[in-house]
C-alpha cells in the first residue's frame, strides 16, 4: 500500500471518485524523513526518478538512492554552514541534482526558494534581496553562475555560492562535496508548520510575490497526484515543468512519491513535441500533465501515437475546445483540466470517476470548501459570474494554502479579507456544479454594460489556422466604455494584411454574441510575457 495512506482517510465512490478526504500528520512531519527515508527503508529498490537528457544521458534512481544522495547533500550543506530557517535559492533546471538538493534542504529545515534558470541579473537581484538568501545552488549552464555572481555583488549580501556537476569560478561544487560525505543524516528537529518553500509568482500585474508554504504542503498534493493526474502505484508520471515553478511541486515530486509513482524527467532546453512523445513511449510513461501550450503544439504538429499513456491532465491556462477534441481523437484520452494557484494546491478539477467537460475547470476538490462569491460577499447564483474563494473549515487555514506573502503581511491580510481567501479569479458555475473560468478580475472587459472574459474570445480566435497565439484586452471606447481588441501572433506561412484582419474578425464575430465582437485586431511578432510564459495583459492594455 502506498505511503500516502498513513497520512489520510479517504472515502471513494463506486466509480473511483473521491468523496471526502481528511489529512493528518505528526507535529514534526518532514517529507525528507517521513516519506523519502521511510520509502528507502521499506521499498529501497522502487523507482523514484527516471531521468534522461536531450543529449542521450539517462539514469534511474531508487528511493534508496535519493535517500543516500540527499543525506550526502545535507551533510555537505550543514558543514558549510546552512541551518534550519536559512533561505536557499535553487536554480537547477531539470537536472537530477534538484531532487537530491530539495530533499536535503527539507531534512535540514532550510527554506528552498526555487527559481528558473532563465532569470535575468535584475530578476535574481530582486529575489536575493526579497528573500534575504543565505545561499544559491545553481546549474553551471546557460550563463547562470555569472548572472548569480553579479546579482550577489550588487546586493551587497554575503551569500554562499554552489554549482552542481562541474565547477564555476567563485562557486563551491556541491557534486564534489557530496562525494566526501556520509550517506546517512541524523534527523534534525523541524515542525510541520515551519516554512518549507517560497515560490515567487509570475508577476503578471506587478512585482513577483514570494508565496510561503510550510512542511505540511506536500501532503495536500495527494489529491493532485492520485485523483487528478492519476499517478499510479508502480507507474511513471511525467509533468512537463521546470523545477523553478510551483508546477514542479504539483507534478514532479511530492504527491507522486506519496502515491507510489516514479517521476519521469526529461532535461531539455528546446521543446520538440516528437521528442516528447518518444520519451513517453521509450520509458513507458503512464500519466502525463502539461500546460495547454504544450498540447496546442502537439496538436499543431500532429499528435504522435503513444502506447503506454493512460491518463492526461492540463492546467495553467485556458484550453480551447478544438485542442481538447483533437488530442482526444488522436489518443483516445480525455484531457482532465484542473485549477489552482501558486498560493494553493489543486482547488478543483475534472477528477477521476467524472466525465470531463471540455473547457470546464471541473468541480471543487473535497479537500477544500470552494465557493463563488459576489462583490458583497453573498453566494453567486448558478450561471452568474463570481469570485472563486476558499472558505476555511473550522476556522483554520486549509492544508496546502499558503501561510503568507514574503515581507507583506498587509497583502496577506487583504487576500484573506472577510474570512475567506480571495483568489482574484472570476468564474461561473453551471447547474451540475461544474465551474467555468472567466478570467482574472483585473482582465475582465466591460463593454456596453456587459462583462466579458478574454478567454471567451481567445478561445474562438485560436480555432483559426492562421492564429498561433493571441490575447484579448479592453481598450477605451467612447460609445461602449471599452472595445474588444485582439492582439494576434500569426502562424508560420501567414502575413499580416487588411484582408486577413477582416477574415479573422468575421471568423470570430460570426461565432460570438454581438456584445463580444472583436472591434480591433493588431498583428504582432510576439506577446509580452512573464518569465514563466504568461501573457502580461497589463502591458497590452497600457500600450
Can you describe what's shown?
The chain is an alpha/beta fold. Among the domains are: about 30-50 and about 55-215, 3-Layer(aba) Sandwich (Rossmann fold), CATH 3.40.50; about 450-540, ANL, C-terminal domain (GMP Synthetase, Chain A, domain 3). The chain has a nine-stranded mixed sheet, with helices on both faces. A five-stranded parallel sheet has the order 6-5-7-8-9, sandwiched between helices. The chain has a four-stranded antiparallel sheet with strand order 19-20-22-23. Helix 5 links the parallel strand 7 (about 135-140) and strand 8 (about 160-165). Helix 1 runs antiparallel to helix 2, helix 2 (about 65-80) packs across helix 3 (about 95-110) and helix 4 packs across helix 5 (about 145-155). It is globular and about 70 Å long. It starts with 7 loop residues before the first strand and ends with a helix. The mean pLDDT is about 90.
Write the layout of secondary structure elements.
Blueprint: E1 8-12, E2 18-23, H1 31-42, E3 47-53, E4 58-62, H2 63-80, E5 87-91, H3 97-108, E6 111-114, H4 121-131, E7 135-138, H5 144-155, E8 160-163, E9 172-173, H6 174-179, E10 195-200, E11 210-214, H7 217-228, E12 236-239, H8 246-251, H9 254-258, E13 262-267, H10 273-283, E14 287-289, H11 292-301, E15 311-314, H12 321-331, E16 335-340, E17 346-349, E18 363-364, E19 369-373, E20 386-391, E21 404-405, H13 409-415, E22 421-429, E23 435-440, E24 445-447, E25 450-452, H14 454-461, E26 467-477, E27 481-490, H15 498-509, E28 518-523, H16 537-542
Parallel strand pairs: 3-13, 5-6, 5-7, 7-8, 8-9, 12-13, 12-14, 14-15, 15-16, 27-28
Antiparallel strand pairs: 1-2, 3-4, 10-11, 11-21, 16-17, 17-18, 19-20, 20-22, 22-23, 24-25, 26-27
Helix pairs in contact: 1-2, 1-3, 2-3, 4-5, 11-12
Amino acid at each position: 500500500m502506498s505511503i500516502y495512506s498513513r497520512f489520510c482517510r479517504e472515502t471513494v465512490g463506486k466509480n473511483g471518485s473521491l468523496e471526502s478526504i481528511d489529512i493528518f500528520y505528526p507535529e514534526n512531519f518532514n517529507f525528507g524523513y517521513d516519506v523519502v527515508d521511510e520509502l528507502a527503508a521499506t521499498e529501497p529498490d522502487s523507482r523514484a526518478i527516471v531521468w534522461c537528457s536531450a543529449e542521450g544521458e539517462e539514469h534511474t534512481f531508487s528511493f534508496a538512492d535519493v535517500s543516500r544522495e540527499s543525506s550526502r547533500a545535507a551533510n555537505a550543506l550543514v558543514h558549510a554552514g546552512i541551518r534550519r530557517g536559512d533561505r536557499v535559492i535553487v536554480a537547477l533546471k531539470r537536472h537530477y541534482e534538484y531532487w537530491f538538493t530539495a530533499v536535503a534542504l527539507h531534512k535540514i529545515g532550510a527554506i528552498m526558494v526555487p527559481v528558473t534558470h532563465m532569470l535575468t541579473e535584475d530578476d535574481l537581484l530582486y529575489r536575493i534581496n526579497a528573500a534575504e538568501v543565505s545561499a544559491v545552488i545553481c546549474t553551471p549552464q546557460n550563463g547562470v553562475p555569472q548572472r548569480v555572481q553579479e546579482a550577489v555583488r550588487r546586493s551587497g549580501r554575503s551569500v554562499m555560492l554552489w554549482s552542481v556537476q562541474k565547477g564555476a569560478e567563485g562557486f563551491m561544487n556541491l557534486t564534489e562535496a557530496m562525494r566526501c560525505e556520509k550517506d546517512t543524516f541524523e534527523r534534525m528537529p523541524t515542525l510541520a508548520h515551519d516554512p518549507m518553500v517560497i515560490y515567487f509568482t509570475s508577476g503578471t500585474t506587478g512585482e513577483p510575490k514570494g508565496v510561503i508554504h510550510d512542511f505540511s504542503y506536500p501532503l495536500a498534493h495527494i489529491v493532485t497526484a492520485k485523483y487528478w493526474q492519476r499517478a499510479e502505484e508502480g507507474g511513471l508520471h511525467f509533468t512537463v515543468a521546470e523545477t523553478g515553478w510551483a508546477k514542479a511541486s504539483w507534478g514532479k515530486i511530492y504527491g507522486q512519491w506519496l502515491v507510489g509513482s516514479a517521476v519521469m524527467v526529461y532535461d531539455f532546453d528546446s521543446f520538440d513535441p516528437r521528442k516528447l512523445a518518444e520519451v513517453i513511449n521509450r520509458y513507458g510513461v503512464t500519466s502525463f500533465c502539461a500546460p495547454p501550450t504544450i498540447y496546442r503544439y502537439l496538436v499543431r504538429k500532429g499528435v504522435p501515437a503513444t502506447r503506454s499513456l493512460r491518463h492526461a491532465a492540463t492546467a495553467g491556462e485556458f484550453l480551447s475546445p478544438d485542442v481538447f477534441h483533437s488530442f482526444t481523437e488522436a489518443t483516445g484520452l480525455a484531457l482532465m483540466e484542473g485549477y489552482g494557484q501558486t498560493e494553493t494546491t489543486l482547488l478543483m478539477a475534472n477528477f477521476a470517476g467524472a466525465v470531463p467537460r471540455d473547457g470546464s475547470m471541473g468541480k471543487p476538490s473535497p479537500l477544500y470548501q470552494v465557493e463563488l462569491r459576489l462583490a458583497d460577499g453573498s453566494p453567486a447564483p448558478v450561471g452568474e459570474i463570481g469570485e472563486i474563494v476558499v472558505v476555511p473549515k473550522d476556522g483554520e487555514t486549509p492544508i496546502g494554502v499558503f501561510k503568507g506573502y514574503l515581507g507583506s503581511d498587509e497583502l496577506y491580510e487583504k487576500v484573506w479579507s472577510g474570512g475567506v481567501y480571495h483568489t482574484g479569479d472570476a468564474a461561473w458555475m453551471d447547474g451540475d456544479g461544474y465551474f467555468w473560468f472567466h478570467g482574472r478580475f483585473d482582465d475582465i472587459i466591460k463593454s456596453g454594460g456587459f462583462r466579458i472574459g478574454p478567454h471567451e474570445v481567445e478561445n474562438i480566435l485560436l480555432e483559426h489556422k492562421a492564429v498561433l497565439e493571441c490575447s484579448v484586452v479592453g481598450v477605451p471606447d467612447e460609445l461602449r466604455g471599452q472595445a474588444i481588441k485582439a492582439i494576434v501572433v500569426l502562424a508560420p506561412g501567414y502575413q499580416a494584411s487588411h484582408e486577413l484582419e477582416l477574415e479573422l474578425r468575421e471568423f470570430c464575430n460570426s461565432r460570438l454574441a454581438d456584445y463580444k465582437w472583436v472591434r480591433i485586431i493588431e498583428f504582432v511578432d510576439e506577446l509580452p510575457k512573464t518569465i514563466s510564459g504568461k501573457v502580461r495583459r497589463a502591458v497590452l492594455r497600457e500600450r
